[in-house]
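Dig into this one:

. . .
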Amino acid sequence: MQAHGHPFPRSTMTPSPEPTPISAPPPELKVVNMTKHFGSLVALQDVSLTLKPGTCHGLLGENGAGKSTLVKCIMGFYTPTAGQILIDHQPHTIHSPKDAHHWGIGMVYQHFTSVPAMTVAENLVLSRYDRSQVINWKREYDALHSFMDTSPFRVDLDLPVAQLAAGQKQKLEILKQLYLNSQILILDEPTSVLTPDEADEVLGLLRQEARAKRLSVLLITHKFREVMAFTDEVTVLRKGQLAGHGLVQDLTVAAMAHLMLGETRQTREMAKTSVANPQPVLELQELCADRDNGLEAFGPLNLTVQSGEIVGIAGVSGNGQRELVEVLAGQRLARQGQVKVQGQPYGASRTEMKRFGVYALPEEPLRNACLPGMTVAENMALRTFDRPPQARWGIWLVLRAMRQAAQDLITRFGVKTPSPETPIHYLSGGNIQRTVLARELSSPDIRLLIAANPCFGLDFAAVDSIHHAIVEARNQGVAVLLVSEDLDELLLLADRILVISEGQLVYDSPMATADVKEIGHRMAGH
């Protein structure tokens, strides 16, 4: 493809001096015709990929495209149905992550794997595959200090992991792989909990290590900006097959999106309409709540969300936003303060949520908003199963009405499922989220929508669909509280943006006058 100019800058950081290359570059990793079947389901079919030594390689694809299956075959979690893994042109069978480690391959997962109560030093030593019964801590600390002196990141060895900020925790996950002498790093959405500045720092430093021939990086991401700014090549998967690959300098975002989706799709603009006579819908007054360990999570918070308004709350994970959403959803008790909806005290009971028209689109919906073993139709009916026409006399379920209502919602919201009777845990993440969205937004009495990281880990098409559904609800007069760790999402959707840091609202601005650099600094605690 012809290059048409990059829509994003290569990097916003001041370049550092090029590191001195080490003598032994990382090996070349080649995946040849990788195929993986789960019974009759073809998850991956004849996919090939080459990670050249000292390069950063992006792996793109919609949710369910086969990215996770591919890297799990590389790491030894899955045994491939067919295909080969070549390391420096030699075929190798990888049965487990320990085998992968033997060949210098390590993976940094989307969720942190360190033990919170242990120190950084203890977690690093724990990550080793040896079975030493006795640890000589003086010798270990000498080795760890030497390791830190040569590593791209610095983290205090004596700090408990629980006291680290999200950015430091992510650096520790990468440090563990460097400590294990991994020369090939597979990164699964590594910036999902980082501020924009932290993301640029982490990926920029890893890119420097790659250019110095100390590392090769395979980056799984859904952010086109990261691909354009930090990778050399990109491979795109679609429906379990190779859709294309090429040098990033030769591709545009539009070209990569076309490869991902397989057809030209015009992304609709976020057309917002003015809502006549907006009224306060959600009011927080001196609201406080505690964490599970009894320490204060947030507060006191004062906040108002009006009808026809999207108020976005930005923040790095762990600053009180999860507990705030749980209070509003009735999953956590407030320690003090008051919540009002439409001017009336609100305690988040099921009866009150129905009376005031409060609905929620939570993070991790399979855990927080669904019953995994129940069908799509049953999960869609969780709000309405005890009301006509889906119930008679509040006791007898009318299954035909339940299935028909589910089928209507499946069609309206584009949920991809074999049938309404399919257990919901069989669906992809994007379609589980669409199912919850259909249930929460289909009620005619909705007045308040609480959305928490609604697009976390979802693919391009699912994100676009959910964003437009949220804006359409706002245009119909719904008040929306959008809590997200994705600043780009908030900048796109919100009418007003706030930042939460250490449980306090530290920034508040209409979107028209918002200062993105200041938002990033406040998110980082500056």
